[in-house]
Amino acid sequence: MRVRRLAAWTALPLAVTLGLVACGSGGNGGSGESDPNAAVRIEIAEPQHLVPTNTNETSGSQVLSALFSPLVDYDEAHKPYEVAAESITSEDNTTWTVKLKDGYTFHNGEAVTADNYIDAWNYGAYAPNGQNSSYFFEKIAGYDDLQGETPKATTLSGLKKVDDHTFTVTLSQPYSEFKSILGYTAFYPLPKAAFSAPGVLAEGYEQAPIGQGPFKMKGTWQHDAKVEVERYDAFPGEQPKVAGVEFRIYQQLTAAYADVLSDNLDVIKTIPTENLSTASVDLGDRFRQSPASSLHFLAFPTFQEEFSNPDVRKAISMAIDRDEITKSIFKDSQQPARSFVSPVVAGYRDNTVGAAGEFDPTKAKELYESAGGPSKITLSYNGDGGHKDWIDATCNQLKANLGVDCVGNAEPKFADLLTKVKAKQPVGLFRMGWIMDYPSMENYLGPLFSTNGSSNYYGYSNPEFDKLLAEGVSAPSEEEAIKKYQAAEDLLAQDMPVVPLRFGQNNFGHSTKVKNVEVDLFDRVNLVKIEVVK
Fold first, then answer.
1. Contact call for residues 120 and 53 (beta carbons, < 8 A)
2. pLDDT score at 11
3. Sequence-distant (≥ 6) Cβ neighbours of residue 334 within 8 angstroms
4. What angle do CA 152, 49, 295 make, to 5 degrees?
5. Among 20, 95, 396, 408, which is least packed by CB within 10 angstroms?
6. Residue 422: per-residue pLDDT
7. Residues with Cβ < 8 Å from 327, sequence gap 6 or more?
8. Of 112, 110, 89, 111, nearest to 99 (Cα)?
9. What SS3 class is residue 328?
10. Interior CA angle at 103 toward 99 and 109, to 5°?
11. Where are the beta strands (DSSP E) in 334-461?
12. Tell me, what's the pLDDT at 29?
């Protein structure tokens, strides 16, 4: 999931106070001078993809944030401001004019033009290309004609080039928050070199993506090992203070934590749950926390008969003691979740799940039996994400409170789990984590729960939900949009396609070799701020 997205690791507990800044505030790892010629080493999981329109999980997003510069980013109030864009304006919230800043070039020397955005977005929206983030172009006029096995068109009618540095985007209906979504990974540009023919991605591009950001690829993606990037000196924006980044791929967070303790890794973005109680002693002031936008939940394969009844799903939710697991497994480093959107976005309400979110084993068992729930439940999760302890605890609760057989099923990597659930292979319930792509209720509701949502892996579909979401998107103001989004969220409480479990917070650590380490609301290390200490 900016998906941003689907989170591989067990992210940890949300500071709900909205007055907190979006990123960590520094915390020097040493007192020496910075070494601009040194590289840093940052932990990630194996990315699923490294094409912008196909990347909807946090590890791939972290890599792409080094290689690309977004049109907009977000300030401490979660409002968008221009980065690669000079301006983004509209008089009617339907037709938007995007003007690009001069001076941006791709890492192969190509000048960045309006065509690079138009070509990339058309590629992402064209259904036969099978891009995970195709959904994000849904609001642009002509999107429907690019869908299906044999689309009517190959390009979005709503994209028009004005000149080399200007293009217009016409939406199918007004959307007041359109500027905000342009910070998402799917809206990065692609160079001409990315295509072997119009609309055809060049073979091998994904193994060494060419972007227009502060870093360029150093070699190729070494699967299950690392991705290396180096500073791009021609980048016209703020230059990084390090020479490069090695994104080191780990299958187990505990191994990454050991490497941070021994100064063999510079940043671990998520402290393993088993090390939370000792992290402040192990790392001292190098154990850091900052607000996050993550929501963690168990998803039901609603397309399977045994989980098609909302009462079965509600009973399972009621049989889980969120508070106890948060306390015993996560050492109160997360916040129990009983809503479908994060507290960091405007419009959040506490406890929208209602009665189904309250721990009540007696009612849960009665409801489960009357609804004909299955006698065996499988909880699938990615083994590379530090989830085993809480999955086991959840299974034990379901066994005790529902009288069912429950087993945990670990897939080796998050990418493996995503591939299986996308193909609707039988995995039982499966854990998911979502980090927002842009600061809006719509970004939690649309991708995760709309019928054609990019990360709706559980087959949930409710026409009334889709209608309310669409009305919120086209509302003339944020206040009116929120009312529609809240009404849509109320339907989720009735249908219960997922079980919200926890809101997360960034709990991260770093070595003695770096300083000014920040992890943002999107679970990304700020690669421009971080420094290596001599």
1. yes
2. 40
3. 12, 13, 14, 296, 326, 502, 503, 504, 505
4. 100
5. 396
6. 82
7. none
8. 89
9. helix
10. 120
11. 335-336, 376-382, 405-411, 429-435
12. 42
Hey, what long-range contacts does 195-203 have (CB within 8 A, 24 or more apart)?
195/119, 195/123, 198/119, 199/119, 199/122, 199/123, 199/126, 199/129, 199/154, 201/51, 201/123, 201/129
Q: With contact defined as beta carbons under 8 Å apart, do 428 and 409 qualify?
A: yes
Is residue 315 within 8 A of residue 358, CB to CB? The reply is no
The Cα 148–Cα 124 span in angstroms is 14
Q: What is the mean pLDDT of each run of 10 residues along the chain (534 residues)?
A: 44 29 37 87 96 93 98 90 98 96 98 98 97 93 96 98 98 92 96 97 97 98 98 97 98 95 97 90 95 92 93 98 94 91 93 97 98 96 87 97 96 81 85 89 94 89 97 90 97 98 93 96 94 95
Using an 8 Å Cβ cutoff, are 57 and 3 in contact?
yes
CB 77 within 8 A of CB 190: no
Q: Give me the DSSP letters along 114-151.
A: HHHHHHHHHHHH-GGG--TTGGGGTTBTTGGGG-SSS-
pTM of the predicted protein model: 0.78
User: Would you say 341 and 445 are in contact if contact means Cβ atoms under 8 Å apart?
Assistant: yes
- Identify the DSSP state of 517: B
Given this model, what pLDDT does residue 137 score? Answer: 96
- How far is it, in rounded angstroms, from Cα 234 to Cα 262? 35
Residue 144: CB atoms within 10 Å: 13
The pair of structure tokens assigned to 163 is 């000149």
- Within 256-299, strands assigned E span 267-268, 287-299
- Which residue bears the tokens 């919230």? 93
Q: Which amino acid is at 336?
A: P
Interatomic CA distance for residues 354 and 339, integer angstroms: 9
